[in-house]
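DM from R.C. (forwarded with permission)

"hey, sorry to bug you on a friday — could you get me a structure for this? deadline for the figure draft is monday and I only need the backbone to look sensible"
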Amino acid sequence: MAEIAVPQTSPESMDGVISTGPAAAAEDPIVQPAEEAPPVDEYVCETLYIQNLNEKIKPEVLKASLRGLFKSYGEVLDVVAHNNLRMRGQAFVSFPNAEIAKKAMKDVQRFPLYSKPMQISFARTRSDAVVKRVDANEFDQHKAKREEHKKTTRYTNPLKSKFRAKRLAQEIDGGASAPAPKRPNVQMPDEYLPPNKILFLQNLPESVTKDQLMSLFSQYPNLYEVRLIPTKRDIAFVEFVDEGSAGVAKDALHNYKLDGENKIKITFARK
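My reply, with the result:
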């Protein structure tokens, strides 16, 4: 049998031919997987910053109320509240550690103290009481830094600047102008609050438990959470997935006698 001659291919004859073999594949760029961003640590602090407090309540009464409300979560190191223009309606509550503060903030957030829901966040810096407890050797440095910050912001505070500008204008005009009449602060009754998905329960029996309320409200669809306030057993919050479901439960259970005697009052929670 005659042998078939294999044609020889010269390098010049291969010009313009694209190779599809392994060598060509090796030249493809390798895409490196994108590195995941490192998780950002949640900021926590031993001190809570509370806003939207009732400005008509005297500081001493307010501090006593806040201490009584938060003491069930652990030792309360300090409560700071002032009646000056800049700090009115605000307070700071300090605990021995950040875990206690975090739990207290979660449970008491939006609690209506003196008919105003508290707005709670972590303070930007540690309080004097916390530094004394956990890092006493650094207290002098901490206090000096705080005093320095107070001096530098004394004349840049927007509220004080506005007050000084108003007083200067009055002096230029030759006397103080008559103060504008104050508008009466009329608070809407609970019964007429607009619908939302959170119900506010009042006049509960002192012995009521979370399981009892869960059993009562789970008869209605879309129940999300029941929250009791440890220091005030006669009130609670019940949250639904949507305001329509909350409204159905409210209409059905308002004035219900949970213990057979006292009627529970149910309204929409204040936002």
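R.C.: lifesaver. Helices lie at 22-25, 59-70, 98-108, 128-134, 139-153, 158-172, 210-217, 243-253.
me: no worries. The radius of gyration is 33 Å.
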